[in-house]
Design goal:
The chain is of the alpha+beta class and 235 residues long. The chain folds into 3 domains: 91 residues, PH-domain like, CATH 2.30.29; 70 residues, no CATH class; 68 residues, no CATH class. Helix content is 41%, strand content 22%. It is built from 7 helices and 11 strands. The strands form 3 sheets. It has a 5-stranded antiparallel sheet, covered by helices on one side. It has a 3-stranded antiparallel sheet with strand order 6-7-8, with no helix packed on it. Strands 9-11-10 form a 3-stranded antiparallel sheet. Strand 7 and strand 8 form a beta hairpin. The longest helix has 24 residues.
Length: 235
Amino acid sequence: MDVDKKPAAPARDDETVLAESPLFLMLVCVVCGAVVGAFVPLLAHGLAKLRWAPFKGLAELLTTVPEPWLTLGGAGVGALLGLLVGFLAVHESLTVRISDTRIVLTVRDASREFPRGDVASAHRDGKQLVLLAPDGAELAREKSGLPWPRLTEALTAHGHGWAPEDPHRESWRRWVPGTAGLPEGANALLNARATARERDNEDDARELAQELRRLGVTVRDEKNRQYWRRSPPRH
């Protein structure tokens, strides 16, 4: 069954806690933003020389700002935008608490707890951490920026199963509208989820994936494509 979200549980003495460094995430985003912003003068001068271009008027206005103020201003604005992206990245980052009796995944200040008996194995799928139930149903799929060797070591040290690859890799099928063999209503949910992903609406995509699990369909993404496999329904 789907596990309801609840406030993050406090760490126990016997838990291993793995989390991305907020300072590192913020620093990377700010530096990248500043670097991109520093190239604004080059872009502005390039657009201003074109006969027609989007935002050409704004580009011409920017070129009237003397150097080094234009470059410094661009870098500053880029750094501020990077700071905002950094806050979002920290909010979206994954924290994993592992003990001998449970695995707790925390994203967006909400936690999902999985007792040891409910989890048969964990594995990596690209940049995502996946937890599987004994019957093969997917319990969780979360994007992870954690070091995979450390995560693998922590899980196995606490006695949890780790699979070197997806044990159901041969069962995945690419979804196209009207795919046969799906439960009633699944095609509509997959179509709605494809639209949500095109609009970068991760919350809707996540919710629709949960609805699909209730129908006995597990879904994963690869670039702009959705892949599915049958699994026991999760009520």
